[in-house]
């Protein structure tokens, strides 16, 4: 059974750096073709793809966020980390991680709600 | 503004069939046969219900079906039920620098 779970702070101050961790089980991020992506959803709004990291370390980002986002992986811990710098209230929303394979997000975590507010 | 265009809302009575469209461009939906559809019940994460245009993951009801024509993909729910209420999103890879694009979502109401 594949599971993913996001963890991190629920409240972040504007201009601070947000760090979220995705801990997964049931698959290995060293398996060819596998990736983990981050997707966010502002309250009441649509999904927005943020970025991806693949089994070989290749990382890709949404150009609208590329300057602020870094995604790393720790294969030994089965974790993927999202780092977002200089957050703003518009970054408030639910952040999901999801397994990516064969051009689809197969399995999603439950999501974690992050509020950016002073 | 989302890259893929979906109707904001659709509705239907129990037992009816409804269709949700997802319109993209020749850089995404029109280029790839990798359109996915996700169901998101209120307060829950998205769940993959269709991938590669028309394939269903194990455990997904065969009332859900997908298709594509040109740059428009469609999700059809046959015999809609109350439990189908929620938001539905389409997604596609893209040849643009935004490698993954989503639709704006469609809220399904069962009357």
Task: Provide the low-confidence segments of chain A as ranges.
Answer: none
Overall 3D shape of chain B: globular
Question: Radius of gyration of chain B, rounded?
Answer: 13 Å
Helix content of chain A: under 10%
Helices of chain A, by number, come to 0
Mean pLDDT level of chain A: 96
**What order do the SSEs of chain B take from the amino end to the carboxyl end, as H and E?**
EEEEEEEEE
Terminal-residue CA separation of chain B: 28 Å
The number of helical segments of chain B is 0
Oligomer: heterodimer
Can you tell me the residue ranges of chain B where pLDDT is under 50 for at least 5 consecutive residues? none
The count of strands of chain A amounts to 11
Structure, described:
The complex is a heterodimer of chains A (118) and B (111). Chain A is mainly β. Chain A is 0% helix and 54% strand. Chain A is built from no helices and eleven strands. Chain A has strands spanning 3-7, 11-12, 18-25, 34-41, 48-54, 59-61, 69-74, 79-84, 93-101, 104-108, 112-116. In chain A, strands 2, 4, 5, 6, 9, 10 and 11 form a seven-stranded mixed sheet that branches. A four-stranded antiparallel sheet of chain A has the order 1-3-8-7, with no helix packed on it. In chain A, a hairpin with a 4-residue loop joins strand 7 (69-74) and strand 8 (79-84). The model of chain A has no long low-confidence stretch (mean pLDDT 96). Chain B is mostly beta strands and 111 residues long. In chain B, strands 1, 3, 4, 7, 8 and 9 form a six-stranded mixed sheet that branches. In chain B, strands 2-6-5 form a three-stranded antiparallel sheet, with no helix packed on it. In chain B, strand 5 and strand 6 (72-77) form a beta hairpin. Chain B is globular. The model of chain B has no long low-confidence stretch (mean pLDDT 96).
């Amino acid at each position: 059974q594949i599971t993913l779970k996001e963890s991190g702070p629920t409240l972040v101050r504007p201009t601070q750096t947000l760090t979220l961790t995705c801990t997964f089980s049931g698959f290995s991020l060293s398996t060819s073709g596998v990736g983990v992506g981050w997707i966010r959803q502002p309250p009441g709004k649509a999904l927005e793809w943020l970025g991806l990291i693949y089994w070989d370390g290749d990382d890709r980002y949404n150009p609208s966020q590329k300057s602020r986002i870094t995604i790393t992986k720790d294969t030994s811990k089965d974790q993927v980390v999202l780092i977002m710098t200089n957050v703003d209230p518009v970054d408030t929303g639910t952040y999901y991680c999801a397994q990516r394979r064969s051009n689809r997000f197969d399995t999603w975590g439950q999501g974690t709600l992050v509020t950016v507010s002073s | 503004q989302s890259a893929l265009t979906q109707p904001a809302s659709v509705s239907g009575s129990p037992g009816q069939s409804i269709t949700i469209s997802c319109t993209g461009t020749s850089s995404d939906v029109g280029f790839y046969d990798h359109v996915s559809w996700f169901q998101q019940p209120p307060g829950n994460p998205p769940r993959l219900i269709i991938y590669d245009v028309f394939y269903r993951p194990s455990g997904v009801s065969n009332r859900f079906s997908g298709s594509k024509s040109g740059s428009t993909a469609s999700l059809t729910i046959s015999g809609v039920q109350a439990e189908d209420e929620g938001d539905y999103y389409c997604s596609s890879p893209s040849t643009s620098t935004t490698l993954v694009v989503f639709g704006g979502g469609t809220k399904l109401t069962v009357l």
